Structures are given as C-alpha cells and as structure tokens.
Amino acid sequence: MKRPPIIGVMGGGQATDQDIRRAYDLGRLIAVQGWVLLNGGRNSGIMAASARGAAEHGGITVGVLPDDHLGQCAPGIQIPIRTGMGSARNTINVLSSDIVVACPGGSGTLSEIALALKHAKPIILLAFDVCPLFERIGQPEPMPSVQTPEEVILHIQNLLRGKSTSCHYT
Amino acid sequence: MKRPPIIGVMGGGQATDQDIRRAYDLGRLIAVQGWVLLNGGRNSGIMAASARGAAEHGGITVGVLPDDHLGQCAPGIQIPIRTGMGSARNTINVLSSDIVVACPGGSGTLSEIALALKHAKPIILLAFDVCPLFERIGQPEPMPSVQTPEEVILHIQNLLRGKSTSCHYT
Amino acid sequence: MKRPPIIGVMGGGQATDQDIRRAYDLGRLIAVQGWVLLNGGRNSGIMAASARGAAEHGGITVGVLPDDHLGQCAPGIQIPIRTGMGSARNTINVLSSDIVVACPGGSGTLSEIALALKHAKPIILLAFDVCPLFERIGQPEPMPSVQTPEEVILHIQNLLRGKSTSCHYT
Amino acid sequence: MKRPPIIGVMGGGQATDQDIRRAYDLGRLIAVQGWVLLNGGRNSGIMAASARGAAEHGGITVGVLPDDHLGQCAPGIQIPIRTGMGSARNTINVLSSDIVVACPGGSGTLSEIALALKHAKPIILLAFDVCPLFERIGQPEPMPSVQTPEEVILHIQNLLRGKSTSCHYT
C-alpha cells in the first residue's frame, strides 16, 4: 500500500477572516491532491477552517485533540485522535506530519514550529512572519515563507519530489 | 460530516497463527463495515495482521506508533500517528477508540484493557480469557467475550445501535 | 552524587481503612530508609496516605499528577510533577520507579502493574491479589506478594542488594 | 507541609563556556535559596551544569528525561523522572515549574518558552535574547530579561512575594 503524505496544518484557535479563508483553501487544495490533512482538531480558527476545506472536498482529515473526548472537535475532522494530553499533543502533531505548514497563531503554534525544527520536519510558513528568531537560533537556512495556499502546494510538491526547496518568496 | 466509528484492535506483537488469522479477518470485516481500524501500528503480530486485513479490503487504518519514525510501521497502516511516546501511546489507543477489541496479547494488551475500563470504553474480548481478574476489580459486569471475528462485528453493531450488550458467549 | 532509590507506590484513589493504614506505614518506612517515594500525587486513597506517611517522617515525596495544576494534589507531596496528560502519566509513574509496590486499587492500578511488567520493573504486591492473571499472561514467575509494609521493605532491601527475590508469601 | 518552589531551568544541550558558568551559578543560587531545581535531566549543556551547581550546594534536583532509562542522566540529578516520551516531556518541564528560567538554547528551548507562555507561567530570560518574536505574538508585555544569575534570583524572589515584575533590564 502506498501511504498518502500527511500534511500538518498548524495555526491559531483565533484567526482573522483572511487567515480563515486561506486555511480553508489550503485544506481544500490538500484534499484535491489526495494528501491527508492533520491538525490539532479543535473547533476553532485555523483548525476548524482547514479541516472543513479538506472535508468538503473529499479529503481525509485527522485531528490530534488535546482532549480525551469529542466535545470540542471540529466538524470537518473525520478521524479524531483523542490524546487527553493537553499541550503534549503538539509534539504528536509535528511528529506525525511529513510536512508542516504554519499559519498565523500564538504561542501554541510557535511551540509547534520549534518542535518541527527540532525534529527536522520540513516547514512552510503561510502568511506568518516568524523567520528572524528561528533563523538566528540554530536554524541553518530560512524557512520557506509564502502568502498563498497555492504556493504552499507547489512547495509541498517540490518537497515530495525530493527537491528540497528553501528559497523563500516573502 | 458523519464520522465513521473507530474500532481499536489491541493485541500482542507476538501471536499464534490462529490469532493472526482471526486478527486479519477482524480487520477485513471492520473495513467491509466502513469503520476505521485503529491499532498500535507496529509491523508484528495482531497489529500487522489486523491492519493488513482492513487495508486489503479498502478500509482506513490508523496506527498509533510508540515511535517517532516509520521504521517499524506495519505496511497495512495508511495513517501512521507517530507519537514518540513509547508505552504512553497505549492511552491514546484506548481514548481514540469508540470501541475496543482485545485479542490475545501480553502485558501491553492488559494495560490497554485496564485503561479502557478506567475510561469506560466498551470492550469486547476476542478469544482472550481475562475476565476473572478484571471482573473482580471494580468491574460491574463481565466484558463480552467471543471466539470469532463475526461475533465481534455483531457486538459492535449492537453497541452502535445503542443497545449495550454485555451478555457473553464463552 | 549517589541517587536514592525511587520507590513507586501505586494503588487506588478509593481504599479501605486498613489499606490506608498500610499505605501510610509503607510511606513512613520508605522515608525512614532514606528512599524517595513516588506516586500518582492525587489527594485521595493510597496516594494521599503513602505521601503523608513519608512526608511526616522526613522523606522526599514525588507526585506525578494527571493534572496540569495543583488543585487535587495530596498535601504530603513535596515535589508535584504536573503532566497534564491524564492516564498517560501512569506510564511515567512506572518508568520513573526503580521498584514498584502495588497496593489494592482499580483499573488504573492494574494498568500500572501491566506497564511495570512490560518494562521489566520489579513489582511487589502489598495485600493485593492479582497474581493468577498476570502470571498466566507471559509472566515467567510469580510477583512477590506480601501482607505487611515491613515485608515490602525487606523485599526492596533484597532487590537493592541485587538479590532478586521472587518467592512469595501469600 | 510547605512546598518549596520549583524553578525550571531550560537551555541548550550545547552551550558556551560562559553560559555553562552562568547555569552552574544559577543552580547554586537556587539551591542556596532552598528551592527545587527542575530541568530536562540530560548530561549536557545547561542541564548538566545547572544540576551540578544545585547538587553541589545541597539542593534538590529533578530531571524530567525524554528517555525511559538513566543512560544519559546528568550526575547532578537526584530525582530522575523517566518519561520515555521524547520531546513531549518539554510540556512536563514547563507545567511542573512554578517559574521558568530560559537560558540560551535551540529549538527545544524555544518550544519550552512558547509552552510556558501558553500556560501563563512566569518566564525569566537569562542572557537569551528572544523577546521581539514572542512579544509580537500575542504576548502582552515583555518577558524580564537579565544578564546574571543573581538578577534571576531577585526576580524570582519578587515573583514569590506576589509582586509580579515585568520590567526588563536589557
């Protein structure tokens, strides 16, 4: 069996309308590519939007919940992984993703970017400007940083072809 | 979106030929029902067999790995959740399952039965005789215990219909 | 620096008066030996009693809490480890103990015994009769099973001297 | 029983000589105050140095290891918490600390700062300039940032007196 790539979409529980639209479109495009979308599973912000975008276009959606129940699970999540582990699930989000896309978020999202760097996961920043810090702290080269979901997809396609691409578009 | 039920199949990394066959058939029947199969993800014993049975019949298979990599992931696993958490992932196995089926196993499987009882998850024993201890220890009624994968499916169907069924067939 | 042995004391959040007294005495004796007592940290049953027994006799007490806060922490716990991980902390309880003592409990305690077996931690049962199941399931020899805290201490002393002792007294 | 404050000291496994000296001194001063030092437990960099500083001055030292064994535990750690959970233990480091001190480090340390912000733990930066990013991202006020272990101690004393102090010295 060939495994579909798992694309982790991280981002805040609170988000602007524009970020919500981008996250929805990103979910949609991930589904259209036949990739699995994985996120933090909660029914808010980037998580809810990206899951909905993927689910409404036939994609498989995995939500790694901090909770041990489904009370706050996003409706677009098809496969809820209930960890009951709170923020420790951020580590699972990152480790389970073949590629991590970071949308705008707060300290939780920053922890996921940091953990992705630690575990050498490819990261793509979508309209989220965090480069300076992470580049200075032991990060050899800038993370790709783009402004549209379509550019994220192109980056992922390149990564999946084994062409590591770290040029950035900002 | 309607979420498919997630059926957790627990059991040993080492297993007899008969148990392997049962696990394969259970995976197959779970897939045919349109349910999601979740297990511990490793490429051995009950995990590998149940994943293969489901995957070869079009089912969605989720493996919650103790590892942070795919080196020992069963080929039948479509969605590997890499936890990097060792045995702590047993808790995730249980919490993420709507219904737990326990096949023969060792101490890891016993820990999952105990955790399932703690979190009030419905459990069905498949050819695995552990009742006396768990019944004595704070367990109000016997766990259903059956000998064939087909009986497991009937039990799950009853549970999903909201008909709690705890009669056992042993 | 020489590390003191860490003795894990597992057992139920609900317990009989006799079990509470035994747990208190066990905590006291562990402290007198200069060993560290580790338990699940909650303010109930075996956890609260064993922590109190150790703390009132000058011992170091570590509580590995399922919570991310101190709201339900036993007063006898000097060092509360806040995991926020729910039942996944049972794995930490076991891995962090050099020797595990299992007092009467429910499914949570059974999960800890199972995990201790999985990770080859020495286990001593204190007035808790679980042998038959675990002995049948891949357990090579019976776990030592005793009726008094004093016998537990003797067993631990033997284990620390490197004299594995698996004779049981029941 | 009055619980001593638990001071978490985060920082890199690799560190400059100057950072090592600062970490040692910080550990020493924490011990002299009668506080518990908690860190990531490994035998390298800031972890090894701060544990040694505390242990050599009679302090209690707790190491929350990513491992399930003691093979890489710093000699200065008196109480090793073996999690077997890899980077997920970073969450435990933060949750178990009453106050977090961040020394220079890499992506692991950044993840701990982010998690500390998420869980509203007081943070003090010791010779580690990360303010701009975290301040911009949903952080209401700058984290205190100091250059000497002595200043860290003063900050902690103020925090323990309930005088929240967020002026920074950089």
Number of domains of chain A: 1
**How helix-rich are the residues of chain A, as a percent range?**
25-40%
Largest interface: A-B, 26 and 26 residues
The CATH top-level class label of chain A = Alpha Beta
The main pleated sheet of chain A reads as: 7 strands, parallel
Number of strands of chain A: 7
CATH topology of chain A: Rossmann fold
Structural class of chain A: alpha/beta
The residue-averaged pLDDT of chain A reads 92
User: Assembly type of the shown chains?
Assistant: homotetramer
Order of secondary-structure elements of chain A: EHEHEEHEHEHEH
Please give the count of helices of chain A.
6
Instruction: Work out the radius of gyration of chain A.
Output: 14 Å
Which helices and strands, and how do they pair?
The structure is a homotetramer of 170-residue chains.
Chain A: E1 6-10, H1 17-33, E2 36-39, H2 45-55, E3 61-65, E4 79-82, H3 89-95, E5 99-102, H4 107-118, E6 123-126, H5 131-136, E7 145-146, H6 149-160
Parallel strand pairs in A: 1-2, 1-5, 2-3, 3-4, 5-6, 6-7
